[in-house]
Each structure stands twice: as structure tokens, then as C-alpha cells.
Design a protein that fits this description.
CATH topology of one domain: Leucine-rich repeat, LRR (right-handed beta-alpha superhelix)
Mean pLDDT: 75
Helix content: 10-25%
Bound molecules: 2-acetamido-2-deoxy-beta-D-glucopyranose
Keywords: Disulfide bond, Leucine-rich repeat, Membrane, Repeat, Signal, Transmembrane, Transmembrane helix
Distance between the termini: 108 Å
CATH class of one domain: Alpha Beta
CATH superfamily of one domain: Ribonuclease Inhibitor
Number of helices: 11
InterPro entries: Ig-like_dom, Ig-like_dom_sf, Ig-like_fold, Ig_sub, Leu-rich_rpt, Leu-rich_rpt_typical-subtyp, LRR_dom_sf, LRRNT
Organism: Echeneis naucrates (Live sharksucker)
CATH architecture of one domain: Alpha-Beta Horseshoe
Number of strands: 24
Protein name: Ig-like domain-containing protein
Length: 501
Amino acid sequence: MRSTASQCLSGTDIGGSHSNPASAALLLLLCLGFPSSVASCPPPCICASDIVSCSGRSLSMLPFDLPRYATRLDLSHNNLSALPPDWVPRPFERLATLVLSRNSLSRIEVNAFAVTPHLLHLDLSSNQLAVLNLSTFTGLKELEELLLFDNQIVQINPGTFRDLHSLQKLYLSGNRLATFPLGIYWEPGGPHNLTFLDLSHNRLSEVPVQSLLSLPHQDGIYLQENPLVCDCALLALLEFWMWKQYHPVMDFKGETPCRSDSRQGPVCSQQGALDMPLVTKTYQEEPGKTFRVPCPGLASSTQEGQMVFWVTPRFVVNSSTNDPDSRLRVLPNGTLEIQGALVEDTGTYGCVAARQRLYESYESVEVTVVVGNFSTASTGGSPHRSSAEHFNTAFTTLASCVISIILVLLYLYLTPCRCRERSGGCGGRAIVLCSDPREVESGQRRSNGKRVAFLEPQAEGSDIGSPKTPAMNLGHVITEGILKNGSRKVGQTLTDPVHMA
Ligand SMILES: *[C@@H]1O[C@H](CO)[C@@H](O)[C@H](O)[C@H]1NC(C)=O
Ligand SMILES: *[C@@H]1O[C@H](CO)[C@@H](O)[C@H](O)[C@H]1NC(C)=O
Ligand SMILES: *[C@@H]1O[C@H](CO)[C@@H](O)[C@H](O)[C@H]1NC(C)=O
Ligand SMILES: *[C@@H]1O[C@H](CO)[C@@H](O)[C@H](O)[C@H]1NC(C)=O
Ligand SMILES: *[C@@H]1O[C@H](CO)[C@@H](O)[C@H](O)[C@H]1NC(C)=O
Ligand SMILES: *[C@@H]1O[C@H](CO)[C@@H](O)[C@H](O)[C@H]1NC(C)=O
């Protein structure tokens, strides 16, 4: 803008020499009123419509008259060392992507990003940033992606991310962080939608397992290439993430801590646990009751040092928590005890423990807990579940009977009856009927779990002229028999010559 202003001043000088005050005023008005529309691509940069690239120009100062219509500004591969608050004189209203990677930035002044309020992607990778301050990212309320990898970040001060409400992806790999920046998740106003956090290639020696297990988006936390100390808690977390097939542990299996040298690592599980299959079970209890849920795949007595976490719908509890007021507690053998069950306790519970084995795809470390008042829906005080079972059995029987009837009708209508051509040819016509394993009657034979009834050949000459009449009767009889007797007397009914006529 200063260069534009100086051009303007020289322009008015020329105008003044021609002694035309009107044209001078017009020129001045143009210069002052529409500087942005005049701003064209500055000399060190390359512009393509709304993209401005000033990459690799050894800039240590920013070109001042950057076009305001830019949506993408690339200042990478330069020699910028600081970002002052007035690095551009007027806000970029449309800028969505700002690339500042591969510079020497070590300082970002307060409100430096106030001029880019609608930024979505900010790339500050490969710089010299060491400490992130409360003021570093103020105003970036719409930012979705922040690249900070390959810096020297040792410290992230509280409140650094408090304005980044929309942040989804944060890359912090290749820095010098020694403690997990859990504040990112807990800070008020912070990035509650953060789904991706890359902390690989840092100096983390431990991670807050319990806190990570309670995060809604644990599936995007990258921890590979950190000098993590492998204990039973970390092993439990990593095994859980493996079982969940989370990308960070699946994609970097080789570099994930604990995995490669798990044989030399801690001994967390008993040998007996190896053979126990992990099956999904459902535990039902009435409200107010106290009950226990065993941890799938854990032996009855656990190894010294074993850590068991239970991820419940509302809390995460672990076996070293010793809070007597807590309704939920983990017994030393990993069993979860729920006291005074509430209906809200219903849900899926995961038992996170180091079992030191590989999980088959069908296995599950989760169980289902249902807390409800089952006495309401039942009759005569019997549990709801058994009446549901009765209903299910009855329904299954009815459905199989209906299918059988349809099959019988199809058979009778669609098969050309050989009785017409050859008398006695109808012998051996087989009909699949409803099965009832408890019943063995004459004239019936079990074949592949189905009961098969054989009809005796009819007397010669009978019903030859009207093959469909007995079929109709037969269908009617069977239907009637099934509906009345629940398939019990079907065999007898069919062999009864009176009904067949
Ligand atoms: C970058 O700036 C520093 C001083 O700020 C200077 O010494 C160095 O030569 C510059 N490097 C390049 C490549 O321009
Ligand atoms: C944060 O503040 C410290 C101390 O005031 C300063 O040295 C550092 O450069 C600041 N960080 C950034 C990214 O500006
Ligand atoms: C978080 O994401 C959800 C779904 O993508 C969205 O509806 C919500 O507005 C987001 N919240 C913030 C603070 O961006
Ligand atoms: C277990 O739970 C307690 C209390 O909630 C917590 O202080 C502790 O850090 C947890 N242990 C681990 C290894 O996460
Ligand atoms: C765990 O311990 C409790 C109490 O000591 C016991 O009732 C329960 O049966 C044990 N669970 C298993 C799976 O051994
Ligand atoms: C369960 O429902 C029955 C019938 O509505 C009621 O009498 C009983 O108090 C309920 N029990 C609980 C624990 O809510």
C-alpha cells in the first residue's frame, strides 16, 4: 500500500505540473478509494485467478500489496522469521488457505491472524516455533486443519487452542513434546471436534491412558515413534485400539510402541487366559440391583501389575481406582461391579486389559449391559425374557408351518401328476411337513431334520378324472390340522383314507 501511495504522490506531482487540479483530485480519489482493485500481482509472486504463490523467493519481508481476492496464499520456502500483526495492511476476507511452511518463523505476534478470519487451512510446518502461546492462534474460529509438524515445539501453553472451535486435524509430529497435550481436548472453547491428532516423532514417554479411553475420537491419535515406556496400561490401550482396528495402530503396526518387543515387555496376563475365547455376552439386571460383569478373556486371578479399564457408556474406571463412593468399581480380578444399577447404565461396556494375545476377528472385548424393569411387560410375574422366548418359539413354528403349506401347495399344483398316465404312479409322493423332534409317529421318517410323510398309492380308478380335487382337500386338511393341532396329528390325518377321498 505504501508503494501504491508513493506512486500516487508522484502522479499528483505530474498532474500539478500540468496545473489541472480536477484530474489531480480524480487521480487522488482513485488512488485512495480503490487501492485494492488496483493491486495486481506483486513482482516476486505468481498469480492465477485467486491463487497467489510467492514460494521460494528468499523473502524475509512480505510483499505489501498482495491481492485481496486471494483464497490461497503460498509463502512457503522463504526466509520469514516473524509474523507481525500488520504483516498485511488489510484483512484477507476470502483467504481459506495460508501456507507458511519452510520458513524460519519463531515468533507469531498477538493477533497476527486477525487479518485472516476465514482461514480453513494453515500450514506452519518446518519452521522454528518452540513455544505456542495463548495468543498465537487468536481469531482462527473457522480453522479446520493446522499443520505444525517439523518445528521445535517443547511447550504448548494453556489456552493456545481455545479459539479453534472448528479444528478437526492437528499435526504436531516431529516436535519435542515430552508430555501429552491433553489440554487440547479439555480446554473450554477448544477444538471439541478434533478427530485427528498426530503426535508421532516426539519425546513422549507416557500417555494418559484413562483420559484417552474417555475421548470420543480416539481413532485418530497417532503415537508412533515416541520413546513410550511400555507398561500394562499402555499395552491394554494399544491392544484395545488394535481390536477396534483404528488406523493409527493398524497403519503403523511396526512402529507402534510395545508391539514389536512385547515378548521382552511386561508380563500382564496369566497363561491360562490365552485359551479363553472372547464372546459377546449380555447381562440383564433390574434397576437398583448390584451385579458383577466379568472381564472377557481374563483368568479369575490376574497377574501382578495388570491394569484393567472398563469403558462404560458414561465413565472410564480402572482397577487401581479406590473410590468407595463410586457406584462402579473394578475388582482386583478385572470384574466390574455395578452397585445400585440405573436404567442409564444400559449400553456397551468394553473391558480394556492387556491379554497379550492376538484377537480373532469374531472375538469381542465388549459386553452388553441392560438395566430395565422387566417385570412390567410380563404376565404373572414371570420375567419378560421367557415370555419373549415363548413368543419366538411359537412364531418360528408358525412361520415354518406356513412355509411348509406353501411348499405343499406348490408341489401339488405345479407337478404334473403321473397318476393320469400310469395308475399307482402317485405312490411315493413326499411332502415335507412341520417338524417336531419330540414326536415320532408311524408312517413318518426323519430325514435331515425334516419329517417326511409318504402317501400310500390310491386305489385304482379313484380320483383319476379329477386330480386337483384331492389336492385341494389335502391342502385344506393339512392347514386345518396344523392350525388346530400344531402339526401333531398331520401324519395320522394324511394316512386317514376317509379324509383323502
Ligand atoms: C535469511 O535472513 C537472514 C537474516 O534474517 C540472513 O542472514 C540470511 O542470509 C537469509 N537467507 C536467505 C537465503 O536469504
Ligand atoms: C511465545 O512467547 C514467548 C515468550 O514471550 C516467545 O519467546 C515466543 O516466541 C512466543 N511464541 C510464538 C509462537 O510467538
Ligand atoms: C462438530 O461436527 C458436527 C458434525 O460434523 C457439526 O454439526 C458441529 O457443528 C461441529 N461443531 C463445531 C463446534 O464445529
Ligand atoms: C486410574 O483411575 C484413577 C482415578 O480415576 C486415575 O487417577 C489414574 O490415573 C488411573 N490410572 C491410569 C493408569 O490411567
Ligand atoms: C472376581 O472376584 C469376585 C470377588 O472376589 C468373584 O465373585 C468373581 O467370581 C471373580 N470373577 C472371576 C471371573 O473369577
Ligand atoms: C417395575 O414395574 C412395576 C410395575 O409397573 C412396578 O410396580 C415396580 O415398582 C417397578 N420396579 C422398579 C424397580 O422400578
